[in-house]
Amino acid sequence: MNQNPESSLEKWRSSAQAWITDQGETGDWSRRTILDPALETILPNLQNKSVLDLGCGEGRYARILKSKGAIATGIDPTPEFIDHARSQDPDSTYILAPAESIPLPDHQFDLILSYLSIIDIPDLEAASQEISRLLLPGGEFVVVTISNLASTTNGWVKDENGNKLYRHVDRYMEHFGMDLEWRNIRITNYHRPLSYILNLFLKKSFVLTEFIEPLPPQSDPQYPYEYRCPNFQIYTLRKL
Ligand SMILES: C[S@@+](CC[C@H](N)C(=O)[O-])C[C@H]1O[C@@H](n2cnc3c(N)ncnc32)[C@H](O)[C@@H]1O
User: Fold this and answer.
1) Average pLDDT across the chain, whole number
2) For residue range 150-197, what is the model confidence (pLDDT) as tens digits?
3) Domain span at residue 121?
4) Would you say residue 1 lies in a domain?
5) What residue ranges line ligand 1, CB within 6 angstroms?
6) Residue 55 CA: which ligand 1 atom is closest?
7) What is the DSSP secondary-structure string of 54-97?
8) 84, 58 in Cβ contact below 8 A?
9) pTM > 0.90
């Protein structure tokens, strides 16, 4: 057994350049086709709002938040991403920090966005305390994430001709890390049951105000598969 498994942060660091290339300026297929359009329907007016992009990566969506009039701050623990985000947007604030320990004073954000990052955060309990601490009363935590069904296993069971038969779901109530690898990117995603994630916030005086399972346009060839088992969830938790 490997006594020194590579940490998820080490994996992000060694995957950072491949990730930046893979995302490009417009994001990958899921972001372009499903997530960005759905998020547009959820986000409030951000003009002059103070917004934190939690796990901002190379900063693509922080730049979009800024283009919507927000005063955007990004945090991410991967130095290569923070360097890239700063180089693309020198006027905004990008901080090298994990979501579990954010070096900022209390109660300063109108909105915190986690765009496909809660699944990358090893200690979500600690991160939820930071999110609660940093939001203003009435502030919103908007979560774009991988469905808790989809995060249990890696993909579809296929027949001998490669046709998708069904999506494999298992170990749903467990908490575990799953190693994933594609196009020189290696990461660990942390599966948790949906009830665990929601209760972290509901027990801290948040209320759930939006919940959608976004799909691609019906004209997209992937639509039937996303309709059978959506890969994503987007929801808003408002702090009372
Ligand atoms: C899938 S990427 C998403 C990046 C960006 N939000 C986007 O949508 O392209 C996940 C991000 O989570 C970051 N991450 C890893 N561990 C983290 C932690 N403990 N706290 C906050 N972010 C973390 C990674 O560095 C990476 O930038």
Assistant:
1) 95
2) 999 878 999 999 999 999 999 999 999 999 998 899 999 999 999 999
3) 8-239
4) no
5) 9, 12, 23, 55-57, 60-61, 76-78, 81, 98-100, 115-117, 120-122
6) 22
7) ET-TTSHHHHHHHHTT-EEEEEES-HHHHHHHHHH-TTSEEEE-
8) yes
9) yes
